[in-house]
Amino acid sequence: MSAAQPVRPSGHRPREQRSRTASAALHTALVAASLVSVFPVAFIIFVSLRGRDGWQEPTRFVGFDVSNYSHILGETKFLTWFGNSVIVALGTTVLGVLIAATAGYAVSRMRFPGHRPLMWTFLVVQMFPMAVLIVPLYNILGELELLDSYAGLIVTYCSISVPFCAWMLKGYFDTVPVEIDEAGRVDGLTPFGTFWRLIVPLARPGLAVTGFYSFITAWGEVAFATQFMSSEEHYTLAVGLQTFVGQQKAEWGLMTAAAVLITIPAALVFFVAQRHLVAGLTAGGTKG
Q1: pTM exceeding the 0.85 threshold for the entire prediction
Q2: What is the 3-state secondary structure (H, E, C) of 97-161?
Q3: What does the alpha-carbon distance between residue 95 and residue 35 come to, in Å, rounded to a whole number?
Q4: Cβ atoms 189, 102 nearer than 8 A
């Protein structure tokens, strides 16, 4: 006689069936979230390929061309604005990461009067709305004769990105063992030599995160660039796009085409830095 089989309670669902149901629900939610995320970008690309007036009938799937892109690249100063944005964004990234890295390393490794208030000052600075800072920064740049210049805009963007980046890098440097610094000093390296030769190579994930943040901050900022850049040859992309909006009519076709072109460099920077982003964000956020 075979052994009695355990009686399964009524209404009990097999474990495998529950897993399949949960997996299907999870995949459905992920697909829905992906569609919601992709739809705005896909819609902008679609409208940009419909011609100058195609945005008026966005549901029609006919009349595709690249006239908006050819007009942007050939009949406007888009390339000049693009070059200006590249200069400002790269300058902000290099200068901002350098300042933030040295500040974060100093606070992480050295004990000097005011090192704790310094980090809290960085944090408090982030609480001020951007609109509040426009007037004082405008006056400061005016006194320094840096209005309508790349240097003035780079310094302005660094004032935004450096506090956050320094706070994040301080947390990342805290995860690097102090014994590495001691080994560098035993080998005769100066404090800066230890930082540059030993710590910076180990901090690449953190530097990638802060570099990406600094680049995006400068690449897509509008308010400061609009107020501080007065000559068209110094316009950045964010300011140049406003020339497509008039009092009577907005060139939405041109704006969507320009928006697509603007996202390409940001996407390339993201793909270059993305393998470091998760490690840098978690390390900088878990200890500090």
Answers
A1: no
A2: HHHHHHHHHHHHHCCCCCHHHHHHHHHHHCCCCHHHHHHHHHHHHHHCCCCCCHHHHHHHHHHHH
A3: 38
A4: no
Q: Which residue has the tokens 């920077």?
A: 269
Most confident range, picked from 51-60, 78-87, 237-246 = 78-87
Does pLDDT of 36 surpass 80?
yes
Does residue 8 have a pLDDT over 70? no
> Residue 34: is it exposed, middle or buried by C-beta count within 10 angstroms (0-12/13-18/19+)?
exposed
Secondary structure letter of residue 222 according to DSSP = -
**Which of the four pLDDT bands, split at 50, 70 and 90, describes residue 284?**
very low
Determine phi and psi for 250, rounding to 5 degrees.
Answer: -115, 130
CA distance 59 to 38: 17
52 membership: H or E segment, kind and range = none
Compute CA 102 distance to the chain's CA centroid, rounded to the nearest angstrom.
21
Handedness of CA 104, 106, 108, 111 (dihedral sign): negative
User: Where does residue 114 fall: left (phi above 0), alpha (psi -120 to 50 degrees), or beta otherwise?
Assistant: left
Q: Give the tens place of pLDDT for each residue, 210-256.
A: 999 999 999 988 899 999 998 888 899 988 888 887 766 778 888 88
Residue 148 · residue 229 · CB < 8 Å: yes
Which residues are CB-neighbours of 226 under 8 A, at least 6 positions away? 238, 239, 242
